[in-house]
Amino acid sequence: SQQGEEDPQALSIQEGENATMNCSYKTSINNLQWYRQNSGRGLVHLILIRSNEREKHSGRLRVTLDTSKKSSSLLITASRAADTASYFCATAPAGSYQLTFGKGTKLSVIP
Amino acid sequence: EAQVTQNPRYLITVTGKKLTVTCSQNMNHEYMSWYRQDPGLGLRQIYYSMNVEVTDKGDVPEGYKVSRKEKRNFPLILESPSPNQTSLYFCASSSLISGSPQETQYFGPGTRLLVL
């Protein structure tokens, strides 16, 4: 069953602006991951944040996790046209061997 | 180069004609998984495997079979494909850390299947 839900479904910004995407989930998790997908291609792992972590950085990416609100956010700073893609959050429910993906946020960065 | 490969990349077939989509990884990963991606539904897991000869159903297993006879290979079998199995399919693998496969997934390039 799908647990993570991204918000917004679509986001359009100008190059150089920051992009923020949110993910909400329902049950306790071991970790939460963000993936990127260029149109019709395979998903690429961006960042993993564990349930005992609150914030994580990787280059221009910043991920936060609030387990009390069961939510996460992905911030892409100083966006580039090459960041245009769909972004998915994936949650790893505690006690499960599965990774469940949301429906994604489609980001368009306009040059 | 570490990678997950899938074949074929594109496939058009007819209802009822058995087909197999192959998946192979060269990272010695224990965990392998199949997903399907449909517009508006995101990725849904079909089957997964924790290791050789160990497989289990995901969220949408109906109409699919898998096998894991070797660690590197995890083929997806559609014994009698139907039009509702038209989709984009992804294979993924990951290592087991502390017994949990919920770590970084490495995805193949995808197989686009059309069932007429």
Q: Could you please describe the fold and organization of this structure?
A:
- The complex is a heterodimer of chains A (111) and B (116).
- Chain A contains no helices and 11 strands.
- Chain A is mainly beta.
- In chain A, strands 2, 4, 5, 9, 10 and 11 form a 6-stranded mixed β-sheet that branches. In chain A, strands 1-3-8-7-6 form a 5-stranded antiparallel β-sheet, with no helix packed on it.
- The mean pLDDT of chain A is 92.
- With 116 residues, chain B is an all-beta fold.
- Helices cover 0% and strands 49% of the residues of chain B.
- Chain B has no helices and 11 strands.
- In chain B, the strands form 2 sheets. In chain B, strands 2, 4, 5, 6, 9, 10 and 11 form a 7-stranded mixed β-sheet that branches.
- At the A-B interface, strand 4, strand 5, strand 9 and strand 10 of A face strand 4, strand 5, strand 9 and strand 10 of B.
The total count of strands of chain A amounts to 11
Number of helices of chain A: 0
Q: Proportion of β residues of chain A?
A: over 45%
Query: Which class do the helix and strand fractions of chain B yield?
Result: mainly beta
Chain-averaged pLDDT of chain A? 92
| Biggest beta sheet attributes of chain A | 6 strands, mixed
Largest sheet of chain B: 7 strands, mixed
Radius of gyration of chain A: 13 Å
Q: What structural category do the secondary elements of chain A indicate?
A: mainly beta
How many separate helices of chain B?
A: 0
Report Rg of chain B: 13 Å
Helix-strand sequence of chain B: EEEEEEEEEEE
Summarize the structure.
The complex is a heterodimer of chains A (111) and B (116). Chain A has 111 residues and is mostly beta strands.
What keyword list fits this structure?
heterodimer, A: mainly beta, 6-stranded mixed β-sheet, 5-stranded antiparallel β-sheet, 0% helix, B: 116 residues, mainly beta, globular
